[in-house]
DNA sequence: TTTGGTATTGTTGTATACAATGTTGTCGGG
DNA sequence: CCCGACAACATTGTATACAACAATACCAAA
């Protein structure tokens, strides 16, 4: 729990910027996504409060929010921990996302404004850049925002909200189960292909592109059920660090 | 805010039963579903706290939970209000539910255990009972639990969770937009038909039955965009009562 | 060494006080 | 009569104190 946050926060506090529960949730979520907070990591309210310079009230709200996003586990009278989705849940998450994102893409085909299409294309272009440059964290974030944008543009706001949630959950499990050797989960040209179908207005092709993309991503993970790696980890309660 | 809750709660308190945030959320949710708390109703923390005999801390947690379930609206520095989904959102909610529940039903076809199937059948039977008896509140609750069970039995827990959320949201808008004249939104035999297909293991028929069921339900609503009835209501901020 | 109980410590649950903010009502000017 | 400023009030936001509970460490007995 002795991350770069501390100094960062100290600075922000001096600058007079008040820290809201949303800020805290954002920072923690980001850290989980970037694997700086591995599954099972304990997140005590007091500690977080000290780090961010606020009282437990604010931290509590942030934790509640994160719990509703399935980022952490919050059980009564116990310290909140970074969630470790099981292999089964990972598969189910991918399946759910295929269903929802596929439908969103299908609905979006041919209905995107030129500006929106341009914005998405720009993201995809920047992603290639990041990949070529070997800046994986930046690339991941780029890919994330691209899919988040897609969720925002969804004509059906309810589906859009669900997709936002699923994108986050998928990203977490990708970070978790990524094959050790693999440097990146980038799939050359897949985003571009999706965007082409969206621009062309071919709904079923767009849905197919989404399915292919997600299947490819899932295939890159190590989902072999070898001896509940994660479950043990969370049960044994590893607490990697303590400031 | 002077409901039967008050006495009810008083009794429970004397009985020594502690009231948790979950209890409060359950009671409020139920009241919204039963239209005893119309959209726009203000839910001040202090008042709720007095009603349930707890402090604001607990109420806050309950309200946060309800907000994440889309039952209430919670904006900074303002009193929480019962949410009034727009007509557009209602349509979108139905569409999302068709997608998700259809898929769940399709996956469930032929995979339900005999006990589960029997439990569902029992619910459907009881629903007919309630309908014949003219006990609409009981019938609604029965229908709700039937669909909630379906969500529980879903092999894909992620989809199941999403379905639970959608069932709740759909029920709220049904209560909201039900045609004035209609006594009930019961659709004779539809649940039985779905169960038959599930038992027979015909996935696509099951999906179709779900679609028909939801289309029928949606058709029973008054979704004509005539002069934002609801929006005005929430803007005018009717606060029906005050003890 | 292992086991079981117990004291200690750490952490969350709840209540409450105060600060910050939004809402409402009142009054004066146009 | 209508409109804006402003004062009074209501309500939420935050911090903190204490109680309840869980986890841990320690120690004694087998």
UniProtKB/TrEMBL annotation, chains A, B:
- Pfam families annotated for this entry? FCD, GntR
Q: Which SMART domains match?
A: FCD, HTH_GNTR
**Its domain of life?**
Bacteria
> Which Gene3D superfamilies does UniProt cross-reference here?
GntR ligand-binding domain-like (1.20.120.530), Winged helix-like DNA-binding domain superfamily/Winged helix DNA-binding domain (1.10.10.10)
Q: Which keywords does the record carry? A: DNA-binding, Transcription, Transcription regulation
Q: What sequence ranges are listed for the domain HTH gntR-type?
A: 18-85
The record's annotation in InterPro entries points to: GntR_C, TF_FadR/GntR_C, Tscrpt_reg_HTH_GntR, WH-like_DNA-bd_sf, WH_DNA-bd_sf
Which PANTHER family does the entry link to?
Answer: HTH-TYPE TRANSCRIPTIONAL REPRESSOR NANR (PTHR43537:SF53), TRANSCRIPTIONAL REGULATOR, GNTR FAMILY (PTHR43537)
> What's the protein called, per UniProt?
GntR family transcriptional regulator
């Amino acid at each position: 729990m002795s991350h770069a946050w501390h100094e960062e926060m100290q600075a922000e506090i001096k600058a007079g910027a008040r820290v809201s529960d949303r800020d805290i949730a954002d920072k923690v979520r980001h850290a989980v996504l970037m694997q700086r907070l591995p599954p099972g990591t304990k997140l005590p309210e007091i500690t977080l409060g000290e780090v961010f310079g606020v009282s437990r009230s604010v931290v509590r709200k942030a934790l509640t929010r994160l719990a509703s996003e399935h980022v952490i586990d919050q059980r009564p009278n116990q310290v909140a921990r970074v969630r470790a989705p099981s292999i089964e849940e990972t598969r189910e998450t991918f399946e759910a996302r295929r269903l929802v994102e596929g439908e969103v893409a299908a609905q979006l085909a041919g209905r995107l404004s030129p500006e929106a299409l341009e914005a998405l294309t720009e993201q995809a272009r920047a992603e290639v850049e990041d990949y070529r440059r070997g800046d994986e964290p930046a690339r991941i974030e780029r890919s994330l925002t691209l899919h988040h944008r897609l969720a925002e543009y969804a004509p059906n706001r309810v589906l859009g909200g669900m997709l936002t949630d699923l994108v986050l959950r998928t990203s977490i499990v990708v970070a978790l189960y990524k094959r050790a050797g693999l440097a990146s989960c980038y799939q050359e040209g897949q985003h571009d292909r999706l965007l082409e179908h969206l621009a062309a207005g071919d709904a079923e092709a767009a849905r197919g592109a989404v399915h292919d993309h997600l299947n490819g991503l899932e295939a890159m993970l190590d989902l072999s059920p070898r001896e509940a790696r994660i479950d043990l980890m969370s049960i044994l309660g590893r607490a990697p660090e303590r400031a």
